[in-house]
Amino acid sequence: MSTVITEPGVATVLPSAPADIASTSDATMRTQMRVLLDLAGLSVSEEDFEGMTKSFITARENAELVFSVEAARYEVPAMNFRAKL
Amino acid sequence: MSTPQFLTIKDAAAALRDGTTTSVQLTEGILARANALNDTLGAYVVITDDAALAQAAAADADFAAGIDLGPLQGIPLAIKDIIAMKGAPTTANSHVLDPAWGEGTDAPVVERLRAAGAVFVGKSTTSEFALGMPDDEKRFPIPHNPWNVEHTAAGSSSGTGIAVSAGLALGGLGTDTGGSVRGPAAVNGHTGLKVTFGRVPKSGVVPLSWTLDSIGPMARSAWDCALMLEVMAGYDPTDPSAAQVAVPKYSEALTGDISDIKMALPMPYFFDHEMLDPEMRTAVLAAVDVMTGLGATKTETELKYSEEAKDANYLILVAEAYAYHRDNLQKRWSDYGRFTRPSLARGALFTAADLSQAQRFRTKYSMDVAALFLEHDVIVTPSAAFPAERSNAMSVSKRLLQPSYTGHWNLTGLPAIAIPVGFTESGLPLSMQIIGKPFAEETVLRVADAYQRATDFHLQVPQTDALETTDSVVMA
Fold this sequence. Notes:
Largest sheet of chain B: 11 strands, mixed
Strand content of chain B: 5-15%
Number of helices of chain A: 3
Order of helices and strands of chain A: EEHHH
Shape of chain B: globular
Strand order of the largest sheet of chain A: 1-2
Shape of chain A: flat
CATH topology of chain B: Amidase signature (AS) enzymes
Oligomer: heterodimer
């Protein structure tokens, strides 16, 4: 965890690196989720939040799986951008 | 002539020309069924009776005047309700979308179908913004599978899938970002084609994920999908991702001959996953045997990183969808459906690096698939790991843990068709997916059509007489 100033006079606890999220305790994970949702300006109801926590760990683990593909390490993103006037 | 509402487009086009029926008669029959069954099946958000009958009358008048606009003239179609269509609102099945969105306009793909003389039955049900799940807390129809109403009709093009299956349209439009054409086609027992990215212009469609979205035809047969695609495909300057690639006469490629076709079967993950339904696996492998019997050859092979490909597709989809919806999520959280809003908000929980990595992985996986196509013409897989699930057993978290076989081809931008290959013991449709090289819809359709000439699973229809009183399934 690290603390940064996101607004004048407001200190916000930021989540650790994504790799840590899936392995953290339930309480820590919930804190991280709340911070991320707050930073995004989303007022999530308690019921919705509870539902999201159930799938969050799986979703994070799935995202980590994409990072685990060594063969993709030196690929460039499949974005299609061309500079033009 | 079999029941007109269950005709293929190809046969209906012939019937309209030999005087067996008229478009008005055909459309009246379709409208009667749609109105009678919509409360039970939830196929349409709105049924445009008057406009449909006017279009049908115009089609008949053209026939009488010797004007033939092609095989879609006078054919009743369903238009997914995230696609703009003149004369009906576009809701995306959401209270959030501005009611004026797309008002009074046809999306280019709808404009093309209209110019070809098609008849629009109405706007068909979609999962909210092509992402959520049916939500009985909102005022939109709840889609039900016509083979068993307690089971899902899948999504997000649920309404078009139901309509084609139950004889509430002869074909229609779906959109596909991770399987939303092929999933409903698979569980509702008909054919659905996800086209090459850029093959069909997608302006006039509420976006879900700009780099994954596509519009595809859904119909009873591969031949019908070919007829629709001939009209739908082609460049349009209003869509920056539309490809400037010539549109072939797809139906002319459907020769029935697949003796030159080399099929790749990626066994790990797609056939050997521990969660793959055994009936699905058996049916798809039996279908492969039919195709080898027709002269195609098969090779069992491997496509590495297919588990990760599913996750990469999901990540890109959620990130792009969240970017589109963030402002409205901040201001109108509770106006979104209870399944949609957390799905979209999940995009806030991924990082920019997650998205970049998914796009890097996309490059790698696309190259691996391309390598497979150096030696093969098509890849064959099940369309889904399971037949239609019970609706009350579905959940987002469960879905994240399950294998999925469709998003891979959105990630790689390739054409992929889902076709029926049998039924479970309990009477639910089973489906095979055939994937082709970029812009090789002709090949994909040719293989699917050859299989459908040898079988009749795509012509089976659900028994709808008893739908309102029982969930039992009777195969016609």
